[in-house]
Amino acid sequence: MKRTHRVLALLLAAGVLSFLQACQKDDGFISRSAVDLKNGQALVNNAKPELTFYSSARHIGNGRAQAWVTENREGEPVSVGLTLSAGVLNNLPDEMTGVVMELPKGKGKDFYTFVMLDWNPQGHEPPHIYGLPHFDVHFYIIPDEERLAMSPDKVAEFGNLPALQYVPMGYFPAPGFVPFMGVHWLDGASPELGGAIFTKTFIWGSYDGEFVFWEPMMTRDYLLTRPTDVIDLAQPASFKRDGWYPMKYEISYSRAGNEYNIALRDLQFRQGQ
Q1: In 16, 31, 55, 270, which residue has its Cα 20 to 30 A from 141's Cα atom?
Q2: Please, which residues bridge with residue 231 across strands?
Q3: Is 34 in contact with 20 (CB distance < 8 Å)?
Q4: Which CA distances in Å does 246 have to 39, 262, 263?
Q5: pLDDT digits over 168-178, tens only?
Q6: Alpha helix (H) ranges present in 122-162?
Q7: Is 26 in the same domain as 138?
Q8: How many CA within 13 A on the CB side of residue 5?
Q9: 40 and 55 fall within a common domain
Q10: Whole-prediction pTM value?
Q11: Residues 6+ apart with CB under 8 A from 133
Q12: What pLDDT shows up at residue 22?
């Protein structure tokens, strides 16, 4: 009996090792799902648990940024996010800096295409609200080539706002547009719009009649508090294209990894209308 238990233990250990290797990042780090107890249980009960796939890492400040998508056994995305090592918050550049991280091809049904991280040391407009040093994290569902084609002369396309049925409850468009990015939609219930100091908020972004990115924004000072926030998102009556849309977003610090995760969570499939 002891020999049988020993053989089973060795087989289980070998399976766990294979699972960890499958989830390994390109820079040698192990993914969050690989050390998740629930996924460890899934390894025993299912042939294919949720797996996380990573972009190439990009360096910013004294740390690294890496985008990822987690898919279920059917290959559908369940979450998409960005991991920042704690060193990112130190030695940040004095000028605005942006990095684009392409998500792995063929993963998560290719619905989310890339993540764009912007560091704004002087904040941005309107300065009396968003003038504090902060990060913008854009999750796009269009190719980066389409974003780069959003030139300042595309006034008609920027001005073509999504129909009311696609607008999340309580949101409204900020004046103007941002070239090579889109039109930004603000949450009317965000505390900073009522006079509170800006810490975090959630933006929707549109171009040429549809929403094409989702954007958590958060200050450096807020991240230094090591938050563990998961927040429900306002939803529209319908979506324009078939896809997997977030019901929540997360900004959280992991003590185990000494890193931050900014993510769209609880992705649910919605049929386009």
Answers
A1: 31
A2: 249
A3: yes
A4: 21, 13, 9
A5: 999 999 999 99
A6: 127-130, 144-148, 155-159
A7: no
A8: 2
A9: no
A10: 0.85
A11: 92, 120, 121, 122, 123, 219, 220, 221
A12: 41
All residues at 6 or more sequence positions from 107 whose CB lies less than 8 Å from its CB, including other chains: 53, 69, 71, 75, 77
Q: 1: domain range?
A: 1-47
**Backbone region of residue 142 per phi and psi (left: phi > 0; alpha: psi in -120 to 50; beta: other values):** beta
Integer Cα distance of 251 and 201 in angstroms: 11
pLDDT given for residue 48 in this prediction: 60
Beta-bridged to residue 229, according to DSSP, are 251
Domain count, the chain: 2
Q: Is the dihedral of CA 33, 77, 68, 55 positive or negative?
A: positive
Number of other CB atoms surrounding residue 76 within 10 Å: 14
- Cβ neighbours for 75, distance < 8 A, ≥ 6 positions apart: 107, 108, 109
Tokens representing 100 are 């684009």
pLDDT for position 192: 98
Residue 83 to residues 75, 198, 247: CA-CA distances in angstroms? 21, 22, 19
Could you tell me if 95 and 175 lie in one domain?
yes
| Whether residue 199 is found in the same domain as residue 65 | yes
Same domain, 30 and 66: no
| Phi, psi for 28 (deg, rounded to 5) | 95, -5
Q: Tell me, yes or no, whether 188 and 263 share the same domain.
A: yes
Asked whether the CA dihedral 210, 81, 190, 174 is positive or negative, the reply is: negative
